[in-house]
Amino acid sequence: MRDRESVTEIKPLDPAARRVLERSEIEGIELIRFLYADHGGVIRGKAASRARLAQRLGTGIGHTVAMMAMNMLDQLQPVEGMGPVGEVRLVPDPATFVPLPYAPGAAAMLCDLRLPDGSPWDACPRTFLREAIGELDRAGYTMLAAYEPEFTLGRRLPGDPFDRLVPIDDSLCYAAIGFDAAHDYTIRLIRSLETQGLRVEHYHPELGHGQQELSIRHAPAMRAADNQVLYRETVRSTALRMAMWASLAPKPIAAQAGNGAHLHLSLWDRETRDNLFADATDPNGLSELGYRFIAGVLAHLPALVALTCGSVNGFRRLAPRMWSSAYTCYGADNREAAVRICSPLAEGSANLELKPSDSSANPYLSLGAVIHAGLDGIRRGLDPGEAVNVDPDTLSPGERARLGVHRLPSTLDEALSALAADELLMDALGPLRGTAYLAVKRSEAAAFAAEDQAFELFHHLRVF
After folding, report:
1. Where are the chain's structural domains?
2. What pLDDT tens digit does each residue of the chain (464 aa) get?
């Protein structure tokens, strides 16, 4: 799929773009990767040479519209408006420029997908999140968010017929020996993340063999999604350069604990900068606004999981008693609830954690959809009902019915049907983006249904 020369008029560069040029020259950057996340959740892109960077910062890099109809198996889907005819531009955000510590001589920027005249393209994921942030802004809110990813570290060994991931250790959950087994990799990873401006919060070996959890500090919503893209790239690339393999796939090893990317978020007053989820008078420390946000998320959750757990493999995680959530409920520090009200670490630090979320999702679509759902709860004054402060799977069917607790979709197909029926989310996605997303994901569901478990695990561990 060849890139043709841009004919768009080159506009004068703003100060941020000029700083990118200066840094590229001073730091010896030869290639600058223009990255985006597609509907399959895959991080893709093209690279500009330093010699052409000044032009590409203004015009972007030409890219076929068809790539947003490509699934994670590189199978192009028939979506009107995403065929062989038509082009968009990968237009980088200079504020996201980062030299890549794991790839000396290279840097990266996150991109919007724009039409040749510079206007937004209706299938751009980053534009979708920007529009959701705009809805928050008009309501007087800003959002801080952070993904909390887990991944499996090991080595990729040949199998019959597919490669398999062998974990680097068989240590126990939080066991000190697990720190030692992954120490050299972890230190290099932390230094790479910090160099890119991703502030590491905490780290520990998790339940699964070779499973790691390393969390990044919260940031404004767009930066949080950008951080998730950079995090995924850094985790995998750092492992590659140490002759290892790191997979953020939800279930790269069927018999081991799954890898989530729990989404933490809070709403703040745009003017006063107060945390609007915090209320010291509430037993859980959560405001009425926070409860309404929860109610909106729960109301749309069967559809939301098609976006927050965007792969066939992701639904292997969402099973009862797996601490990943399998029911539409919320609770205070309940790690089996879909939405957890986190205990405040300090006064005014209230935040929510969405458990059914993983790194196979496109973070811009995932976070944008959660914003739309939460705002719907606020606008309609929805009530989330009683908190569930036990494992919902231990409740009888009658108790779950009384509490309005329902089983989440157990397959991607079920979640996609719920998404297609959710008027609010489909309207937010828009006709082109919504049609393309459903087509791509339904094709993945069909492709993996025709194959065995080994095929599914291999293709997810190699892509995510």
Report:
1. 15-121, 131-463
2. 444 444 444 567 889 999 999 999 999 999 999 999 999 999 999 999 999 999 999 999 999 999 999 999 999 999 999 999 999 999 999 999 999 999 999 999 999 999 999 999 999 999 999 999 999 999 999 999 999 999 999 999 998 899 999 999 999 999 999 999 999 999 999 999 999 999 999 999 999 999 999 999 999 999 999 999 999 999 999 999 999 999 999 999 999 999 999 999 999 999 999 999 999 999 999 999 999 999 999 999 999 999 999 999 999 999 999 898 999 999 999 999 999 999 887 777 899 999 999 999 999 999 999 999 999 999 999 999 999 999 999 999 999 999 999 999 999 999 999 999 999 999 999 999 999 999 999 999 999 999 999 999 999 999 99
- According to DSSP, the β-strands at 106-114 and 31-37 are parallel
In the CATH scheme, what is the homologous superfamily, with its name and number, of domain 131-463? Glutamine synthetase/guanido kinase, catalytic domain (3.30.590.10)
How far, in whole angstroms, is CA 336 from its chain's centroid? 20
Q: How many helices (H) and strands (E) does the chain have?
A: 13, 16
Look up the CATH architecture of domain 15-121: Roll (3.10)
Only one residue has tokens 């996605």, namely 429
Buried b / exposed e along 428-438 (16+ C-beta atoms within 10 A): bbeebbbbbbb
DSSP sequence for 172-215: PTT-HHHHHHTHHHHHHHHHHHHHTT--EEEEEE-SSTTEEEEE
Write out the two tokens for 231: 């995090």
